[in-house]
Amino acid sequence: MSESRLSDGEGSGALEEWVELTATERRILVEISKMEQEDWAMWGGAVIDAVGEQHLSVSDKQVYRVLSKLVDRGWLVDLIPDKRTSRYALTPTGRDVLEAGHAELTAAVDELPDELLSERRE
């Protein structure tokens, strides 16, 4: 990733925050976004299942800790606070961070040589 992409342009703060996320934090943001698009319930258990399907080796406890951290950072909101079961949604700030990461990855793929991309598709 080029230094100029990190420091230039709109939303560079969101990109810097994306870069600092752990793989588990990124995956949880992505999975919650996918669940929202498919109109699924974003319950903690559903997030655990979705993360597990990505073959990430994380415990239920670790997922809940990350969910809590993302709520504390203002990237997720717990739609049912003070209840035993929580339902999560992305906040506008969380969506900005996710979109910044997506844009960065898309730009990186766009810069790959066509030969490399065609080899990967075969």
Q: In words, what does this structure look like?
A:
This protein has 122 residues and is mainly α. It has a domain at 22-105: Winged helix-like DNA-binding domain superfamily/Winged helix DNA-binding domain (Arc Repressor Mutant, subunit A, Orthogonal Bundle). Helix content is 65%, strand content 5%. The chain is built from seven helices and two strands. It has a two-stranded antiparallel sheet with strand order 1-2. Helix 2 (12-20) packs across helix 6 (92-110) and helix 4 crosses helix 5. The two termini are 26 Å apart. The model is unreliable at 1-10 (pLDDT under 50).
Low-confidence stretches: 1-10
Beta-strand share of residues: under 5%
* Portion of residues within helices: 55-70%
**N→C terminal distance:** 26 Å
Structural class comes to mainly alpha
Provide the CATH topology of the domain at 22-105: Arc Repressor Mutant, subunit A
What string gives the helices and strands in order? Answer: HHHHHEEHH
Going across the biggest sheet, name each strand in turn.
Answer: 1-2
Tell me the CATH architecture of the domain at 22-105. Answer: Orthogonal Bundle
Taking the sheet with the most strands, its summary is: 2 strands, antiparallel
- CATH class term of the domain at 22-105: Mainly Alpha
Task: Jot down its keywords.
mainly alpha; WH_DNA-bd_sf; Arc Repressor Mutant, subunit A; 122 residues; Helix-turn-helix transcriptional regulator; disordered N terminus; plasmid; 65% helix; WH-like_DNA-bd_sf; two-stranded antiparallel sheet
